[in-house]
Amino acid sequence: MITLTGVTRSYKLGNGSITILDETDLNIESGKFICIMGPSGSGKTTLLNIMGLLDTPSTGTVSIKGDDVAKMSKKALINLKRRTIGHVFQQFHLIPTLTAAENVALPMMFANDNMDGRVEEVLELVGLSHRLKHKPGELSGGEQQRVAIARALVMKPDIILADEPTGALDQKTGANILSLLESVSDKVTLVMVTHSRALTAGSDRIINIEDGKITGEI
Ligand SMILES: Nc1ncnc2c1ncn2[C@@H]1O[C@H](COP(=O)(O)OP(=O)(O)OP(=O)(O)O)[C@@H](O)[C@H]1O
Ligand SMILES: [Mg+2]
User: Fold this and answer.
1) 166-183: string of b/e by CB count within 10 Å (b at 16+)?
2) In contact, 97 and 36? CB cutoff 8 Å
3) What is the count of structural domains for the chain?
4) 63 part of a folded domain
5) Which atom of ligand 1 lies closest to the CA of 90?
6) Which atom of ligand 1 is nearest to the CA of 46?
7) Would residue 68 count as lying in a domain?
8) Rounded to whole angstroms, what are the CA distances from 15 to 18, 57, 137?
9) How does pLDDT run along the chain (218 residues), one tens digit per residue?
10) Which residue spans within 120-217 are E strands per DSSP?
11) Is residue 14 part of a domain?
12) What is the domain-level CATH number for residue 148?
C-alpha cells in the first residue's frame, strides 16, 4: 500500500545539513495495523509525514498503491491526498469555530464531493451522534479525537496515519480511542506512532526507529 525506497530527509542548517531520516526502506502492506515506536526526536513524525504526503523526502521514492507519487500529475496527487489518506494528530487539529459535523464535512467540501448522510454516518461510527452541533471547545478531549477520527474517515480512505493519537488523553480515554482505531483498522491500513508499548498489543507489526534509522521490527 505504501512503499518507501531509499528515503532520506535532511534539512539545511547553516552551511551544512542535518539528516533526520536516513536511507529508509519500508513496505506497508494493505489492511495491516502498523505501529512506529522510538525515542523523542528519532524521526517518527518525519517518517509518518513523508508516508502521508505532508512532507517530501530529500531523496528516495514514495509509492502509494504502486504509484511513485513524484511522477504523478498534480491533479492525481491532489486526488490521492484527498481520498486515499486520512490523518489523525495528537492535538486533534479541529477548527474551533466549526461544529463537529462541520469539521467532519470539511474534507468533502475540499474534494467537492458531498456524500449525503456521510457526516452523520461517520459520527455515529465514532459514537458521537448526540454531539453533531457541538464545537470542539464544548467537547471532551476524547470526543474531540473521535471527531478527528470521523474527519479522517469521511472520504473512505485506504490509509489512516495517526501520530500519537492518544498522547493528549488520559489512559482510559486513550484506550477507548485505540479500540476505535483498531475497529476501523479492519477496513483500512493503519499506521500509528505511539510511545506506549501497551498500545501496540493489537498491531501486526511494530517498527522501531532510532536516530533516523529503522533499527528493527517486532
Ligand atoms: N523543520 C525542521 N528543521 C530542522 N530539524 C527538524 C525539523 N523538523 C524536525 N526536525 C528534527 O528532526 C528530528 C526528528 O523529528 P520528529 O518530529 O520526526 O521526531 P519524533 O520522533 O516524532 O519525536 P517526538 O516523539 O518528540 O514527537 C528532531 O531532532 C527534530 O528536531
Ligand atoms: Mg513526533
Assistant:
1) bbbbeeebbbbbbebbbe
2) no
3) 1
4) no
5) 27
6) 18
7) no
8) 10, 20, 44
9) 999 999 999 999 999 999 999 999 999 999 999 999 999 999 999 999 999 999 999 999 999 999 999 999 999 999 999 999 999 999 999 999 999 999 999 999 999 999 999 999 999 999 999 999 999 999 999 999 999 999 999 999 999 999 999 999 999 999 999 999 998 888 899 999 999 888 999 999 999 999 999 998 87
10) 159-163, 189-193, 205-210, 213-217
11) no
12) 3.40.50.300
Query: Which among 55, 48, 56 has a CA at the least distance from the CA of 26?
Result: 48
> Contact 72/80 with Cβ under 8 angstroms?
yes
109: exposed, middle or buried (Cβ count in 10 Å: 0-12, 13-18, 19+): exposed
Which residue matches cell numbers 470542539? 136
Q: Are 80 and 53 in contact (CB under 8 A)?
A: yes
Report the separation in Å between the CA atom of 46 and the middle of ligand 1, taken as the mean of its atom positions: 7
Q: Is residue 67 part of a domain?
A: no
**Cα dihedral 89/161/34/47 (nearest 10):** -90
Whether the CB of 43 sits within 6 Å of ligand 1? yes
CA-closest residue to ligand 1 atom 2: 11
Domain span holding position 120: 29-48+81-217
